[in-house]
Structure formats: C-alpha cells, structure tokens
Amino acid sequence: MGHRIVDAIIEDGQLKHIGGQLPAGRLRVHLIYDTTEEDRADQAAEAVLAETWGIYKDIDPDLEARSLRAEPMIPPGPLNP
After folding, report:
1. Cα–Cα distance between 42 and 66 in angstroms, integer?
2. Is residue 19 one of the residues assigned to a domain?
3. pLDDT one digit per residue (tens) for the chain, 81 residues
4. Could you list the residue range(s) of the whole structural domain that residue 63 is in?
5. What is the 3-class SS of 33-80, one letter each residue?
6. In a domain, 79, yes or no
7. Has residue 58 been placed in a domain?
8. How many domains does the chain have?
9. Whole-model pTM over 0.90
C-alpha cells in the first residue's frame, strides 16, 4: 500500500474541497489536521498553569498588592525627569 498526501477541506464532517485527484473506489485515510490558534493558546495556558501552580502558595496577593502600591516613587532627577 502506498501513501499519497492530498490537501482537503472538511467542514462539519463533510468533505468540501480536495486539492488533487483521488483514485476511484474506497480509500483508507489517516487524518492529520491543523487546529485553530485558540486551541493552541488554551493548551499553552494550561501548560503554564500546570507548571507554575503552587509555587506562590504562601503569598497573600492582597498584602503584596498593597505593599507594591505603598512603595515610594523614585524621586525626580537626571534619570527620572
């Protein structure tokens, strides 16, 4: 059995476009398809969450936010007009 690669578009489970001639008769196929960018972004977010979850478990976010806001500003000077 040989292998050929043909681009095709499938929408809602129906074959809409084929980028080449297919032989007559029944075909056995392996589908490898591109996912949307949203799927990749979701996977990346899940991977980051899984990797970083729990590393800041002893930090109070409200207290940290208040302390960051309370830090004095850099006084104006030659590097900070």
Report:
1. 31
2. no
3. 677 888 888 888 888 888 888 888 888 888 887 766 666 777 787 888 778 777 777 888 788 888 878 767 666 777 666
4. 36-70
5. CCCCHHHHHHHHHHHHHHHHCCCCCCCCHHHHHHHHHHCCCCCCCCCC
6. no
7. yes
8. 1
9. no
